Known about the structure:
By secondary structure, the protein is an alpha/beta fold.
Amino acid sequence: MKKQYIIGNWKSNVTVEEAKAWMESFAPAFKQLQNKLHETTVIISVPFTDLYPLKELINEHSIQLSLGAQDVSPFPEGAYTGEVTAQMIKELADWVIIGHSERRSLLKEGDEELSFEVMQAKTHDVSVVYCVPDEKTHIPGNVDIVGYEPTWAIGTGKTDTPENANSVTKKIDVSSGINEIVYGGSVTSKNVKEFLQQDYISGVLVGGASLDPQKFIDLIKQATS
Ligand code: PGA
């Protein structure tokens, strides 16, 4: 089986108490799946407030689940009220999602700010999942994974066709030289396999279906079957 990534994204959902309950249900089921993961890396990207308690619970359950943040400050430490630096994230998580379309459209994050975010993350050894809505959007150097997410497919229940997603990822691969490209947009346990079977797709970015621990387990089961 080729190397693949399943990346959950809780977005602005899940309080600390809810995160604890999620993990109590997820961890035992995930533990049973672990010997089937092989080349599959599972990452869950959560609100900053959930990182610390989840890190503790992951250690307690000793499961191979990686943690990610969903944003990082474009600045180093200092007088930047409200910002969370890459150095702070690195204590708790190995990954960060940068450039998600919700941050581009709702928070007006543009290419320049996003490239500073990537620079900060990489300076502190936080791996980057960099999201783009198409093959034309600029991708900064040295990101680790690109997430191709057509805006119209996010949270709508409508996916891109696996064939078109494959041809877009192929173009991204050729123009950026990055081989790890995941598809995101209404991925569920029912359609995940079709995307993973495509040559240029190395995984999936999963919003809605990662919020329910059982649905996320079902999706991981399908992906590793
Ligand atoms: P969705 O979100 O799976 O709910 O469509 C995907 C994403 O925005 O990363």
